[in-house]
Design goal:
elongated, Ferritin, mainly alpha, binds fe (ii) ion
Length: 165
């Protein structure tokens, strides 16, 4: 099998850091929501943070499989100046759109390299991002509908607390 190009391995290493940064962001969001007694929303974002760590490890382990040593970059502290639930959900959605564009850049590089093994691994992330964007947009749209009305927020909090995956 042809080795992973330097450009692509650089990008994959950066993506490991980005996935951990996503985990950090979602954990901070969980803590923000917990502080406002939205236990269900906090639970949902904690689960989301856990998921992001598995994404980071998926790329990490792929590099190991390809006989490369992952380079772990610095994880930036998230900005936590949210104004409320809608603002949190809006940032979560924007963040997922940003992650999708990062994945597409990696796909483009793997295509340029004709690195079919990396492409196959990245295809999983392309599919995952469709789900992540849909999920976070649905939450944002619900928050917009609720428009900060307490009874609506409580219902959404309960729904999010019932997340099973
Ligand atoms: Fe992710």
């Amino acid at each position: 099998m042809k080795p992973v190009s330097e450009k692509l391995s650089d990008g994959l290493n950066k993506q490991i850091t980005a996935e951990f940064e996503s985990a950090y962001l979602y954990l901070a969001m969980a803590d923000f929501l917990q502080g406002r007694n939205f236990d269900g929303m906090a639970y949902w974002f904690r689960k989301q943070a856990d998921e992001e760590k598995t994404h980071a490890m998926k790329i990490h382990d792929f590099l190991i499989e390809r006989h490369l040593t992952p380079v772990l970059g610095e994880i930036k502290a998230p900005n936590t100046q949210w104004t409320g639930v809608m603002n949190v959900f809006d940032e979560a959605y924007q963040h997922e759109c940003l992650v999708s564009s990062m994945i597409y850049d990696l796909v483009a590089q793997a295509m340029e390299d004709k690195d079919y093994a990396s492409l196959s691994m990245l295809q999983w992330f392309v599919d995952e991002q469709v789900e992540e964007e849909e999920q976070s947009l649905a939450l944002l749209e619900k928050a917009r509908m609720i428009d900060d009305v307490a009874s609506g927020l409580m219902v959404l909090d309960q729904q999010m607390g019932a997340r099973t995956d």
